[in-house]
Amino acid sequence: MSTRTAEERQREIVLAARATGSVDVAALAEELGVAKETIRRDLRALEDHGLVRRTHGGAYPVESAGFETTLAFRATSHVPEKRRIAAAAAGLLGDAETVFVDEGFTPQLIAEALPTDRPLTVVTASLPVAAALAGAEQVSVLLLGGRVRAGTLATVDHWTTKMLAGFVLDLAFIGANGISREYGLTTPDPAVSEVKAQALRAARRTVFAGVHTKFGAVSFCRFAEVGALEAIVTSTLLPAAEAHRYSLLGPQVIRV
């Protein structure tokens, strides 16, 4: 029998979820020496506290002020889904000539999917996005200066937002750690939130692109309402009924 208290057990579950990206009820029950129902109860409690999201048979960690996945980790999760979403988002470019591309792996994939056979100016705080487009002959890349965050390889702070405030952009491709109908678009870090908010202010049109697991998730800093978006691009793993609820707030919701 396990001698751990519920609190100790739940702390271990959160650490395991954050270390590997997800946890499995059966594996946790075996590992911690308790019944599956005990683990399910733990996961319900952790979900109530906003630390994990439950899935069928397990859970994955919610990104918060104290925990955020790295770009390296994001590049390994839901990749086929992210590629489909990125291609569809890039397809919304229209006649935009000046574009903001956010930090994060899905925006990086959007950058790689943008057409390079016509003049385009891309403004970004993301070093990987800048690197992906720097070699394209007809694409002019403006990298926002500032402090580089190690986990995401993107710039933040007042240098970044001040430079961004000087632009008027046709379109912004925005990512977020969570999107919910009640709390809008959220991210764990206030410095990142400021850059995103400034990008929305600078852009005539804003497109949010994100995998289905972002929906209903809430992080620490809110930077936009759902109604501020022109479009939401996600996958068919987000149920049609839920997509419809988001569309009632204003944006076109595209599932691919």
From TrEMBL:
Pfam families: DeoRC, HTH_DeoR. The keyword Transcription applies. Residues 6-61 form the HTH deoR-type domain. It comes from the Bacteria. GO terms for molecular function: DNA-binding transcription factor activity. Keywords: Repressor, Transcription, Transcription regulation. Repressor of the lactose catabolism operon. Galactose-6-phosphate is the inducer. This is Lactose phosphotransferase system repressor.
